[in-house]
Amino acid sequence: MATSLASAASAERLRSAEYKAASIQGNTHLYRLEHDKSVAFFTELEKEYPHHPGPPLARSIAIWFRELVARDDLDLDRFISPGYFNRPANEAMSEEDKEAFFDGVRQSQERATRYLEQHPGDIDARYYLGACQSALGVFAFTIERSFRKALKHGKKSYRIQREIVDENPDFNDAYMTVGSYEYVVGNLPWYIKWIATLAGYHGSEVRGFEYLTRAATKGNFVKDDARLLLMVMYVREDENAYALEMARQLHGKYPENYLLHINKAQILERMGRRVDAAKTYAAVARRALDKIPNYQNLPLDKIRYPLAQRLLALGSQDEALDQFQGAAEDPGTPGRERALSHLRAGEILDTMGRREEATAHYRRVQELPDYDGTHGTAAGYLRHPYDREQ
C-alpha cells in the first residue's frame, strides 16, 4: 500500500519531499564510498518510484563513480592533470557495468519523456532529460575518453538546462550543468577554442564559477556535487584556499570518505603547508590501519610505499619510516616496492644513527630478488652507512 502511494505521488510530482529524502539517503552511500550500497539502494528506489526518472539515473551515476574509484581516477593529482583523460585507460570497464550504466540512463530518459507526455513542459522532467545528457557526457570523457562525444552531450545538456534557468532563475540545480559547461568551454586551449566557437560552443570561466557557487549554496539535490566540482576547479586555478574549504566541508559531512581526506592533504601540499599535509597523509594511513569504517577499503599494500615517499619529501621522517617499514613487512606489497621500502627504511635509520636496525633492513633487501640494482645498493650500505650528504 505504501509503495503504491509513493508511486502515485511520484507520478504527480517529481520534486516531492519524500523523494528528496530518499535520494539523499542513496547519495550519502555514494559519498561515503559505499558504491554497491548506493547501486542497490537506487535499484530498489526504482521499484518504489516506477514513474520517476531520478532513481535509474542515480543508479547509473553510482555505477560510473564506482568505476572511477576502482581505477583510482579520482585521485586529485590525476584528475586535474592536463591530458590525463585524453590518454587510453589502463583498464576497461566491464561490459556488464557498461550495459547497466546505459540501461539506467535509457530508463531515466524514457520515464522523463513519458512524464512530459502526461505533463507537457514540466520543468523537472526536462531537467532530468538534461541530466541524462550530462551523465552521458562525463561517461564519454572519463570512461570512453572521447572529448568530442563529451562536448556533444554537454552542449545538449547545457541547452536544456539553460532554457530552464532562463524560464525559472530559481531552479538552482540546473546551474550546476550550466556552470560546469561554461567553465569547460571557457577553458579550452586557444587552438581548440576557435573551432569550438565556430561550432557554436561558447563559455566563460567567470560565469562557470558563479553558476556552480549558486548550485553549491542554493541547490536542492546537487549541493555536494557542485562543491566537489568547485574543489577541482579551484585547484586547477591555483585557488587552493577555496579548494581546501570545499574539501573540508565535504569531508566534514562525509568523514568516511577517505578520498576527500586525501584531497585535503594534496591541497595542503600544493599550498606549501608541508607539516599540515604530512600530518593529514599520516592520519589517513592511521585510519586505514585502525580499520575506521570505509578506510579499511584503502589498499594499503599499494599506497604505503608512495605515501612514505611523499611523507619523506615533505620532511616527515618519522612518519615516512613507519610507512616504509609497514610496506616492507606487508606480504601484499609488490616485490620491487618491498625491496625499496627496506632500502629507504635503512637510509632513514642510518641518518638517525640507528645502525643496527639499518643493517637489518639492508640484509632483508639481499634476501629478495634484485630489483634495479637494489642488491648492489644494499651491499654498499652494509659496508658504509648511508650518508644523505654524499
Summarize the structure.
With 390 residues, this protein is mainly alpha-helical.
Question: Explain this structure to me?
Answer:
The chain is an all-alpha fold. The protein folds into three domains: about 1-170, no CATH class; about 170-235, no CATH class; about 300-390, Serine Threonine Protein Phosphatase 5, Tetratricopeptide repeat (Alpha Horseshoe), CATH 1.25.40. It has helices spanning about 1-10, 15-30, 35-50, 55-70, 75-80, 95-120, 125-140, 145-165, 175-185, 190-200, 205-220, 225-235, 240-255, 260-270, 275-290, 300-315, 315-330, 335-350, 355-365, 375-385. Helix 2 packs parallel to helix 4 and helix 14 (about 260-270) runs antiparallel to helix 15. The longest helix has 24 residues, at about 95-120. The protein is elongated and about 85 Å long. About 45% of the residues are buried. The model is unreliable at about 1-10 and about 190-200 (pLDDT under 50).
